[in-house]
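Below is a filled-in request sheet from our internal design queue. Each sheet records the structural input a requester submitted and the sequence that came back. We keep these sheets so that new team members can see what a complete request looks like end to end.

REQUESTER: design group, bay 2
PRIORITY: normal
MODE: inverse folding
CHAIN LENGTH: 132
BACKBONE (tokenized):
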């Protein structure tokens, strides 16, 4: 079992430590004691709760796609030169940065405040875990 501290669980869920403790008291989330006596939650149970409570904005593209990693957000910054552009989106708590042609930025009408969807193919995603 992966043990997650209450403070870290709260950060993952986007709520306060007190809310996590309240959910534990209500039985929404289980907890145990670590070897050092700290109250911790099971990582698998936390993952289940995260998935259950996640709210995804509707994808405005409404297209059929094989890509499952779609992040809807707002364009927060566009930095362009004559050939290339850097486009930054804020997708919930995640900052996504894409490099593309300036022509594509113009064609898509990308500018700060515009709703857009970042699509990430799984073959280009790096997954890391904390060192142990």
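RETURNED SEQUENCE:
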């Amino acid at each position: 079992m992966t043990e997650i501290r209450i403070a870290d669980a709260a950060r993952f869920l986007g709520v306060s430590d007190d809310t996590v403790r309240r959910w534990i008291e209500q039985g929404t989330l289980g907890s145990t004691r670590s070897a050092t006596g700290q109250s911790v939650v099971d990582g698998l149970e936390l993952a289940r709760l995260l998935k259950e409570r996640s709210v995804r904005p509707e994808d405005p593209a409404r297209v059929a796609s094989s890509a499952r990693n779609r992040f809807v957000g707002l364009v927060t910054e566009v930095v362009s030169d004559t050939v290339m552009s850097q486009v930054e989106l804020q997708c919930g708590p995640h900052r996504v940065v894409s490099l593309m042609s300036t022509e594509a930025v113009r064609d898509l009408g990308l500018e700060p405040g515009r709703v857009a969807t970042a699509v990430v193919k799984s073959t280009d995603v790096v997954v890391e875990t904390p060192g142990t």
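SHEET NOTES:
- The first strand starts at residue 3 and ends at 5.
- The radius of gyration is 19 Å.
FILED BY: M.R.
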